[in-house]
Amino acid sequence: MTRTVVVTGGGTGIGRATALRFAAAGDDVYVTGRRPEPLAETVALALKAGATGTVESVLCDSSSAEQLRALVAQLPDTVDVLVNNAGGNTDFDAADGEGLEALAETWLTNFRANVLTAVLTTEALADKLADNGAVVSIGSIAADKGAGSYGAAKAALASWNVYVAGVLGERGITANVVSPGYIGETEFFRDRMTAQRRETLIAATKNGRAGEPDDVAETIFFLASPGGRHLSAQVLNVNGGAQTTR
Questions:
Q1: Distance (Å, rounded) from C-alpha 185 to C-alpha 217?
Q2: Is residue 163 among the annotated active site residues?
Q3: How does the average pLDDT of the chain come out, rounded?
Q4: Domains in the chain, start-ordered, CATH in brackets?
Q5: Out of 21, 58, 155, 207, which could bridge 217 as a Cys pair, Cβ 3.0 to 4.6 Å?
Q6: What pLDDT shows up at residue 189?
Q7: Which residues cross the membrane (predicted)?
Q8: Phi then psi dihedrals of residue 65, to 5 deg
Q9: What's the confidence (pLDDT) of residue 185?
């Protein structure tokens, strides 16, 4: 049965890989983001790969209530899978500043990008989410490692996920977080990754390699599959063993 899937931040990296994975399965996929060019490229790649379902892009900043309302109006009546991928470490884009005001802005910006986007998008689509559907949000190894405002935001996302899993669980909807470690081939580090840093991150894994966007996409796809129906309120680490939980 064809499902309707919404992937926020679907223009690059993990979001793109996820959109392509669902499109390859014949699902109808809607990718959202703030930049039209990457979104259009995702759609083109899906169609080139032979996607048989609908693959469309919708410009939307997931931290904007107004834009989310416009997004909802453009979606079908039912959404089976929501992937909250929009976010990233906004510290890389922050202007240099000193003092409490600059610190407050740093923390608020990361919170908006990584927590508020997921909260608002999930709430905006709540009435459209199909019973027995799935919500998957993208966390980060930084939530466990400690990484300033970005790590704290991802930790908050994991806490919120437990709450929303309880709310949506009444309708059979699962809610989980997929928490990647170092994933190559993304825009996350804004081309600031040094060779030494990359070697260090790979050395921390048990399998001796960087993660790939497809690694995360396959985990998300599983969580939305029949095999993932009794997994909810969980954080699944996809990091090659660089961070373990007991």
A1: 13
A2: no
A3: 93
A4: 4-238 (3.40.50.720)
A5: 21
A6: 54
A7: none
A8: -60, -40
A9: 78
Strand partners, 211: 183
The b/e string for 60-77 (b: 16+ C-beta within 10 A; e otherwise) is bbbbbeebbeebbeebee
pLDDT at 89: 86
DSSP string, 120-154: HHHHHHTTTEEEEEEEEEE--THHHH--HHHHHHH
Predicted local distance difference test score (pLDDT) of residue 91? 76
State the Cα torsion 234-237-242-243 to the nearest 10°: -10
Token pair belonging to 43: 């759609």
Q: Which of 239, 38, 1, 40 is nearest to 133 (CA)?
A: 1
3-class DSSP assignment, residue 231: coil
- Do residues 82 and 122 lie in contact, with contact meaning Cβ atoms separated by under 8 Å? yes
Return left, alpha or beta for 119; rule: phi > 0 is left, psi -120 to 50 is alpha, else beta: alpha
pLDDT > 60? residue 246: no
The pairs formed by 195-204 with CB atoms below 8 angstroms and a separation of 24 or more are 201/242, 204/242
Distance in angstroms between the alpha carbons of the first and the last residue of the chain: 36
For the stretch 43-79, pLDDT in tens is 999 999 999 999 999 999 999 999 999 999 999 999 9
